[in-house]
Amino acid sequence: MTSLNLIAAYYRLRGYASTYGLLLMVFASTAVVFMALLWPAFRYYHTASANAATWDIHVNGPITSLDTEEIVRIAGPTAQWSSASHGGLHARVVRNGRSTTNGDSYVINRVSGEPFALTWAPPGIVLSGRLDSPDSAGLDWVTARRLHARIGDTLVYRKAFVDPEGAERAFTGSARITAILSTTYDSRGLIFIAPKELERALQSTVGIAASDVFIRVKQPERVASKLKRLPAARNWGVVTKAEYHREALAGAEGSGAHSYGERGVLVAAAVLLALILRDLLVRISRRRRSLAILYSLGSRPRPLVVAHVIEQLVLLSVILVAGYLAGPRLLVTVTGLYPPAETLRSIAVLWLGGSILLVAVCATYVFWSMRERSLVLLASDLGE
Amino acid sequence: MIYNLSDVTLAHSSSKGSVPVVRDLNLLIPERDFLAIVGPSGSGKTTLLNAMAGFLKPVSGTVLYRDTDLASLDPAEAAAYRNREIGLVHQFFNLIDDMTATENVMMPLLIRGNTLREARRAAAEILDQLGLGKLARRRPPRLSGGEQQRVAIGRALAGRPSVILADEPTGNLDRATTRDFMSLLGELHRAEPLTIVLVTHDQEVAAAATHRLDLGEVTACQRTA
């Protein structure tokens, strides 16, 4: 009666079938745990860190190109800044972009229904190609795939906006795609255009150049007070990061409340998790019953434990490998969120932690039921 | 004697402490006996069988199997005893659902150390003998209750044990299937050098045995062959 005999008996026959089922269940529950519990925290962490890194002062209002120049002058030569423009009726300004500029202007927009938005690409997110000429443009990889666009293709873009009189206006331009870019999860649909081309495009418009300017500066309070004294500032809101945080903490929206859609996803994920865990529990109970039967047939506890150590190691290995390979893709498919390339490592680490945690729970349960006393109780209960 | 129980008291453990269910039982079971243990619910039938299977140690007294005190066996010896000396049959069959009928019957032999080929050949012979040759590749959920119980008997016989301990083996079968099963058990008892100890609350089933012990009528019982 060796361990190998039992393993042969249990796994060379039909034991594999239930192992596959267990594996699938553990994998699925790991995925749901990840989605439901870890992802929101992960997303909040990345949003918060990006937000913290992006700006110190936010200027919001009808800001012309001349205003922008004045703002840049006040901010000083060492300041980093960006301007953002509403890109049409349904567009929304994204404040969480990873923007590390050196004084170049850029516009961050999220397009919803509009064909394109414009921005300058932060150098750290270029996947391939270079943004090195006045005519060059970078396309985020999601949009590139959707448009079947490749490096070398010419991009024709149209930018819509609303002027101070409320009239809808637009400018158009063209650029050659010279780079494919990674994007943050909430900047899908962005098109990144080199600064000179952007400048030309903005100059072709009349009136408003941007609705938001974000500035990174060492003394935000001092710069903000100077900005507030500008004549045009009576139509603007000038908010420092500290003020923003105070307002955010005071308001309900600042507490990190989720949208209804996100809440729905969380509820669905929680229900799914409950169903999967229930099925997992049923499968483990069936497995315990099988072990009790083997024990009643004369198997020793130690081979049973050896068999289950092997099973848990196989489970863990497969989940880790499959999770590392398929996890991020699964995340994109299920949630529609597009993590930037540099966050995939974080996802892998989270997946690793979640898998180990879940397998440890299962292993502990199995080992607990493998105690001699438990087996005796289980086996003697078979007749009940 | 294959079993010799002397002044055996057995108890259930619960959160409120130990509750005696069998008190000072004396019982001698000779080789090749067919004993039916009957009694109402709670009289300790299954508890007694668990003690004879080595799952449960008596609070007092001794359970001897061929002069070996089962309480003195270490876990390895107890496992060997269950694997080589006894075959267990339960009311709910307790087959492993993931395995075919053949594979279920193979299990005691594989645990014993037989090769897959040897175990498969022995299991096929037993299933043929029990009239289950055509169902050998089916899994338990696709077998009827009677067929599952025959597979369970096949598994109990696979290791060629000296004793079959059957706990309410007909409790989940209809009347016709019960008669078939008891007929099979009777044939096996006549053909094989087997001692059968069967727990039942069914008087008709108990009547098929050569001896009976009613735990409901005795608080202390002494019986010899």
What does this protein structure show overall?
The complex is a heterodimer of chains A (384) and B (225). Chain A is of the alpha+beta class and 384 residues long. Chain A is built from 10 helices and 10 strands. Chain A has helices at residues 3-54, 65-75, 141-147, 195-203, 220-228, 241-250, 260-296, 301-335, 344-369, 372-381; strands at 57-64, 80-84, 118-119, 126-129, 136-140, 154-162, 168-181, 191-193, 208-216, 237-240. The longest helix of chain A is centred in the N-terminal third of the chain and has 52 residues, at 3-54. Chain A starts with a helix and ends with a helix. Chain B has helices at residues 45-52, 75-84, 101-112, 116-129, 145-158, 175-191, 203-207; strands at residues 3-14, 17-29, 34-38, 60-65, 68-69, 86-89, 163-167, 195-199, 211-214. In chain B, 48% of the residues are buried. Chain B is α/β, with parallel strands linked by helices and 225 residues long. The model of chain B is unreliable at 219-225 (pLDDT under 50). Chain A binds chain B through residues 1-2, 5-6, 8-9, 12-15, 17-18, 286, 289-290, 293-301, 372, 376, 379-380, 382-384, and chain B through 46, 49-50, 53, 55-56, 75-76, 79-84, 88, 90-92, 94-100, 103, 106-108, 110-113, 116, 139, 155, 159, 167-168.
Write a concise synopsis of the structure shown:
The complex is a heterodimer of chains A (384) and B (225). Chain A has 384 residues and is an alpha+beta fold. Chain A is built from ten helices and ten strands.
